[in-house]
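Extended Data, panel c. Modelled sequence:
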Amino acid sequence: MVFKKMLSAFGVGGPSVDTVLTNPNTRPGLTLDGQVNLVGGDAPAAIEQVVIGLVTRVEVEGHDTEYAGTMEFHRMGVSGAFELAPKQQLSIPFRLPVPWETPITDVYGQRLHGMTMGLRTELSVARAVDKSDLDQVAVHPLPVHERILEAFQRLGFRFKHADLERGHIQGVQQTLPFYQEIEFFASPQYASTINEVELTFVTNQYGVEVILECDKRGGFLSAGHDAFGRYQVSHADVDRVDWAQVVDGWLRETTSRYGSLRSQYGPSYGHGHGHGGMGGMGGMVAGAALGVAGGMIAGELIEDAFEGDFGDFGGDE
């Protein structure tokens, strides 16, 4: 009996946890609904809490190094302490709000190359190790995101890669400790001035702040450099404008100046959003070199928990 009790304390013969999502597809600002299913083990278990959290892979830039780590960026308790009887079956429903700034992982039903997202369930058992369960989640674009991504495709840009960079963009109000970069190869009509473009959405309930970083080609007498543009759009603008024309204007304006970020598109929204310059290009990514802090879990890569090939958005047909 003593041996069996020891095993139970380390999870053998202990309670099991399995989370079932009603629908693994969601969008920023919506919810993920589901239930946590628990089955009691061989002995009564004192459950301390059940917590769910969204986790993803984030790139971290340090001193001359860059590596990826798993970060939990949003969590919610679904249950406090209770006793789970032997073999007892218990289902706990939940509705998890998805933060507005949650990065996009899927476009047109295809996984963006470089993106991972999962819902992790933690079951804390008294005097024992935490048990956990990981479920894949797909975050689809909001209509305004979709129109802007479509505009890049209509203008001939080809999707290259997406990732999350730890840090904050200077002058932009962020609630999450990272930002998404969606990278495109320049289309032929822009190839004389741009090598690549990185697109970042910082979304809230009113609209989206769009940050463009254009890798400009060098000329006969000038070196190549990065040029930045920052624009605001409202969710209400979705069906009011020709997005290809708008994005083309953004790109031409961004590449016509050297790091000055004074312009925006459309009406401002929200509270106290600044429209001024952002302190030059160096300040844009000042937050990206932050050290590793809470939420990063060394050595744990979420991609190992996911299976399947999700294809590539915007690739050659």
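The longest helix spans residues 243-255. This feature is highlighted in the accompanying rendering.
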